[in-house]
Design brief:
Helices cover 5% and strands 31% of the residues. It is built from 1 helix and 3 strands, in the order βαββ. The N terminus is likely disordered.
């Protein structure tokens, strides 16, 4: 198991199955920006949102949560 894949003790419950979800990973998610002709300028408005990814062991639904600062600052 990698360091960012530790089992979370405060894992959320699945809204469908009502069982605790399994922590998969902490993941940086790029948001904002633009594509096309002005894509170079769009990179200035991009941000990195750090999210924790959880999966339900029964229905396999994925959920993203902004729970903690588990990733190093970049």
């Amino acid at each position: 198991m990698q360091p960012d894949q530790e089992q979370k003790t405060d894992s959320p419950g699945c809204l469908r199955c009502r069982v605790p979800m399994k922590f998969l990973m902490a993941m940086p998610l790029r948001v904002g920006g633009s594509t096309g002709f002005f894509a170079g300028f769009g990179e200035m408005s991009e941000q990195i949102l750090k999210v924790d990814v959880f999966r339900c062991p029964q229905c396999r639904k994925l959920e993203l949560f902004d729970l903690d600062l588990s990733l190093p600052n970049s």
